[in-house]
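User: Teach me something about this protein's shape.
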Amino acid sequence: MWITNFLAPQTRTKLRLLLLDDPVLISFPKSGRTWVRVMMRELGIPVIQDHAGAKGTGPIDTGLYHNKRVMLLVRDPRDTVVSFYHHSRTRLKQGYDGTISDFIRDPGLGVERIVEFNKAWLTAKTRPRRFVLLEYERLREDTEGEMRHILTFLDRHDISEQALQSAITESSFDKLRQVEASGGRADFGRSLKPGNTADPDSFKVRKGKVGGFAEELSEPDILYCNEILEKHDYENHLNVCRNRLTQKSAGPRSDVSASGASMQSR
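Assistant: First, the predicted structure itself:
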């Protein structure tokens, strides 16, 4: 057991950043990070996880990781905010007690904060030593292909086809849902346990559906989210980052990489 396991999570993360060269997986909460972490764990690849000050209204500092290998995971902010609402309502000790309409408009938790966080990383001037853009939608559409890009980025050419297929199978949503319903995984602690087994929305692995926001948000709420995306020119910044990384890559996306799928239509 690492002696660092006895330290507070934030202290442990900072210490590992200083001492180790493990890749850093950064995302806003509820962007699909647990799923990616399980796949990496199944492959035996250590990863430092961090939400990097996502929540709140303070400035977003992307400079801490300038000398690291950073994997930025983004998800459609509308799907992210819906999932984050259910997480905040059902999985926290002091659960959020407002409506979903209130939540998406919250300056420290809502859709604009998600957009600002992702945008800060997509447009960061102080860039990490190596950087890869991962998109949840692409991972759901082509899990094997995107995982291959991740392995190439990490120079893990030793991972066999069989090991990759096994990791994907063991990390499927159905499998993780079953694991969580049966009590979770010891190596993930509380992060892979439901807040209330009788409430499907309290599961860490809830739905994972691409575009599911349309089923849970009212038309005015969807309009508000779309206005925030347009206000920040989010789609354009995402495309610029994709194109920049793709142009820097020579041949297979091995040094710097980007996923190339468009966001779901508004």
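Now, about its shape. The longest helix spans residues 234-248. The chain is about 45% helix and 10% strand. If you'd like, I can walk through any region in more detail.
User: That's plenty for now, thanks!
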